[in-house]
Task: inverse folding
């Protein structure tokens, strides 16, 4: 017998009490059953004498026993047997493969059992009894071979010899249908127990058979299993016990036990349509056992708990469910005629309901937003079902006329261009709409506008038009103009900052469009001739925000050239960098310190609120506002201001241009890289080589940008 | 990245941000071709520019702490550039960046929100829509387009849902 380090005698000697080892009935090897405390025991046992049974037993591998079989005769100490985990899985795979390969045989097939075990020649197998495999064991018998292994497949016909050289073949009836591996394993386990010389057999317990009792073979032959009449199942013909296939009329009909039925069910034997009703009854009997008032559960410690069914409401007060709320919200949107836009905006599934009906005014707005012509709208309406579409036909023109009537939407045409009739009305309409939609956003102004003057004291507040004190609530509007496109047109756009996403195209309003060739001072003055009185009225009257009148903080939002034109400044020159700063060539302490550092007159300092940041507009307002002082270009006129500004706004509110600034700085950095290279090369190889190398490097830089950047 | 001819041949839109994001490529190209002092200052200037560029081009209200950091970074960059490269002239944009942008940011909380982005967008929108409106002259077409845009003003997403 192949063993690994230990024999049965060693194991029995090593474990005087409870045996922690078992012998696998499949590969006839001894293993240790993993048990709590085994590690400690192994360490202790391995420290014993090298050839002792204890040391040999401790060296056995620990393998989980999947199917334990107690096979020992009464009064005889034997090694426990079982089926190891790897062998169990392998047998399971083999059984599955064989079932998949071969069609299921008749559930009741007479099989011949060639008895090969001495002492069983005269024992008749109980006919008609679903016998487990009969264990055969004698001392010193040869181990089972693979072909003769009876437990390799319980559903396969099994032949049992009645003795060496015996030709007697006896048959027993065996219920097929998955087979009971417990029985077969137990039989082999009993066979293994035969090492002790006792011919034993195994009788399965009525339950599952995990625990087996050993009885003698004659007792098995004489023992009849009690048949519970309640377990008789009316299975379909061809399945289960059949009276016609029973050998003897006097025998009780074959009734598959629960294990066999379960295995047959798992193997798909009862999935025919005719079995559905019975299977449903079985399921009902298992899961719906009627109205049981209580469930009694006995724990291992003997304590009994009783569970009873009690119904209780989950909420004391039931409210409308979330689904109903959503349906109601969708219905409200649909009734309001804006369901389509709401769905488009949110990107969700359309709520169930009737067709969406937009009012005539909203249809007109939508058509205008989509730039749809009248012909296109009529085609759309016809394709959508004409009158059934809910789109307006006759109200279209009256609604359009009605919507054109408000001054905020009227457009007047003058010689320089087209303008809104009333900027104040247009902004008031938009602000009212924002307040109604609860989208008006407060934009508080910090007190940083109170810039100290040159002496370091607080500057006197100069009441610029369009620059209310920061302590008051205001409404911020940017007014920008820019020339673009071909043919060129100057667009004048007003933006209300007090809203989310103020720069969105839907949130800005076009105030005027002026076809022009150039945006020079004269043409700009002509374009703004219609708009400037409206701006003055807006700054004077303000707008109503939730019933409260607020002043408007006006901010020029143009590009730099337009900003300079609006305030009538020459633009960036060598002596004046920007329109908000005084020219720099007048000596000052700050400038003198810069000159000492850099030897230049240009602005370089980290100080804030520089004296040169004094604003010329302050002086202009103090001096009388718009009248020009002196002749253009003379020292009497402030800095580089050409003439009185078109729009006398607070220059501190002139917005910086972030993107242009970023572009300019990037451009300066790229140019600086070429200059660095040219300076470095010129210092070593001369100016000509430096310029030539710089030209080559500029091309390399362009290529680098196109490839990598 | 494609250089686009716009604003005197400068880079626009995302391209200019892409240049700033990949400034290391430019610095690597300068290794061995410029002096170490210049190259170090150049890298530092790019780093400072990278920090305040995010503040400058973000359409949200900037915190006071970030505003102060913006001012320090901008001033440090301009000072570094002027101190390291004597031939560099302080352009108008550098002057605005160092002097006026922090003031505006401190007063209003954002620079990008008050920019002319909406105005620039109107160029493209007007170009798309103006040709669809009838008119004998460009002025008439402009007037028709303005009327339509005045109606469409309330056809935005929030306008239709009201």
Result:
């Amino acid at each position: 017998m192949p063993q690994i380090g230990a024999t049965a005698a060693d194991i029995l000697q090593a474990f005087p009490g409870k045996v922690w080892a078992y012998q696998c009935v499949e590969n006839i090897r001894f293993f240790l059953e993993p048990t709590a405390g085994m590690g400690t025991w192994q360490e202790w046992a391995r420290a014993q004498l090298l050839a002792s049974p204890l040391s040999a037993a401790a060296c056995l591998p620990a393998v989980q026993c999947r199917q334990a079989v107690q096979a020992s005769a009464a009064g005889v100490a034997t090694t426990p047997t079982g089926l190891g985990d790897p062998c169990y899985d392998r047998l399971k795979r083999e059984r599955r493969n064989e079932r998949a390969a071969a069609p299921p045989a008749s559930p009741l097939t007479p099989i011949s059992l060639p008895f090969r075990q001495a002492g069983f020649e005269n024992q008749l197998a109980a006919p008609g009894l679903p016998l487990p495999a009969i264990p055969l064991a004698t001392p010193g018998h040869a181990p089972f071979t693979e072909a003769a292994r009876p437990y390799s497949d319980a559903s396969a016909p099994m032949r049992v010899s009645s003795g060496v050289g015996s030709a007697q073949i006896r048959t027993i009836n065996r219920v097929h249908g998955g087979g009971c591996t417990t029985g077969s394993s137990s039989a082999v386990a009993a066979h293994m127990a035969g090492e002790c010389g006792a011919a034993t057999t195994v009788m399965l317990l009525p339950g599952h058979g995990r625990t087996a009792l050993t009885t003698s073979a004659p007792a098995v032959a004489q023992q009849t299993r009690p048949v519970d009449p309640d377990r008789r199942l009316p299975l379909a013909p061809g399945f289960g016990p059949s009276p016609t296939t029973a050998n003897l009329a006097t025998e009780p009909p074959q009734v598959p036990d629960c294990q066999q039925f379960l295995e047959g069910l798992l193997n798909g034997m009862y999935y025919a349509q005719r079995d559905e009703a019975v299977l449903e009854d079985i399921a009902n009997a298992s899961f719906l056992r009627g109205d049981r008032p209580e469930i009694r559960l006995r724990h291992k410690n003997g304590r009994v708990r009783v569970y009873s069914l009690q119904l209780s409401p989950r909420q004391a007060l039931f409210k409308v469910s979330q689904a109903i709320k959503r349906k109601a919200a969708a219905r409200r949107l649909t009734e309001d005629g804006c369901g389509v836009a709401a769905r488009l905006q949110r990107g969700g599934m359309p709520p169930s309901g009737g067709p969406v009906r937009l009012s005539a005014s909203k249809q007109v707005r939508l058509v205008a937003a989509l730039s749809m012509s009248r012909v296109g709208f009529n085609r759309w309406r016809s394709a959508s079902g004409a009158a059934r579409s809910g789109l307006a036909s006759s109200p279209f023109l009256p609604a359009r006329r009605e919507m054109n009537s408000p001054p905020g939407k009227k457009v007047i045409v003058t010689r320089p261009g087209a303008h809104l009739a009333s900027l104040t009305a247009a902004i008031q309409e938009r602000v009212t709409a924002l307040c109604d939609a609860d989208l008006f956003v407060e934009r508080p102004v910090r007190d940083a506008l109170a810039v100290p003057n040159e002496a370091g004291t607080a500057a006197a507040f100069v009441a610029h038009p369009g620059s209310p004190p920061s302590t008051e609530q205001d409404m911020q509007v940017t007014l920008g103009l820019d020339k673009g496109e071909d043919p060129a047109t100057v667009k004048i756009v007003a933006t209300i900052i007090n809203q989310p996403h103020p720069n969105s195209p839907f949130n800005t309003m076009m105030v005027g469009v002026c076809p022009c060739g150039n945006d020079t001072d004269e043409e700009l003055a002509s374009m703004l001739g219609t708009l400037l009185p409206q701006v003055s009225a807006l700054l004077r009257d303000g707008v109503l925000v939730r019933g409260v009148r607020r002043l408007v903080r006006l901010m020029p939002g143009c590009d730099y050239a337009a900003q300079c034109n609006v305030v009538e400044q020459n633009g960036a020159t060598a002596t004046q960098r920007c329109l908000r700063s005084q020219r720099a060539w007048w000596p000052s302490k700050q400038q003198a310190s810069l000159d000492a550092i850099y030897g230049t007159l240009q602005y370089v300092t980290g100080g804030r609120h520089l004296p040169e940041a004094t604003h010329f507009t302050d002086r202009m307002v103090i001096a009388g506002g718009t009248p020009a002082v002196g002749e253009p270009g003379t020292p009497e006129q402030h800095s580089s201001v050409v003439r009185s500004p078109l729009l006398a706004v607070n220059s501190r509110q002139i917005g910086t241009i972030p993107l242009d600034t970023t572009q300019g700085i990037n451009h300066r950095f790229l140019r600086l890289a070429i200059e660095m290279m040219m300076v470095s090369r010129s210092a070593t190889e001369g100016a000509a080589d430096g310029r030539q190398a710089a030209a080559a490097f500029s091309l390399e830089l362009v290529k680098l940008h196109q490839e990598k950047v | 990245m494609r250089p686009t001819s716009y604003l005197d041949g400068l880079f626009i839109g995302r391209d200019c941000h892409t240049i700033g994001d990949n400034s290391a490529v430019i610095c690597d190209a300068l290794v061995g071709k410029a002096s170490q002092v210049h190259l170090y200052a150049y890298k530092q200037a790019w780093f400072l520019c990278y920090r305040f560029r995010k503040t400058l081009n973000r359409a949200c209200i900037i915190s006071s702490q970030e505003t102060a950091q913006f001012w320090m970074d901008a001033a440090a960059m301009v000072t570094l550039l002027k101190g390291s490269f004597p031939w560099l002239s302080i352009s108008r944009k550098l002057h605005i960046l160092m002097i006026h942008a922090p003031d505006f940011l401190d007063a209003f909380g954002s620079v990008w929100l008050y920019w002319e982005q909406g105005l620039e967008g109107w160029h493209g929108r007007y170009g798309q829509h103006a040709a669809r409106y009838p008119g004998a002259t460009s002025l008439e077409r402009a007037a028709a387009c303005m009327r339509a845009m005045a109606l469409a003003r309330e056809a935005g997403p929030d306008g239709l849902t009201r």
Remarks:
- The mean pLDDT of chain B is 79.
- The longest helix of chain B spans residues 36-56.
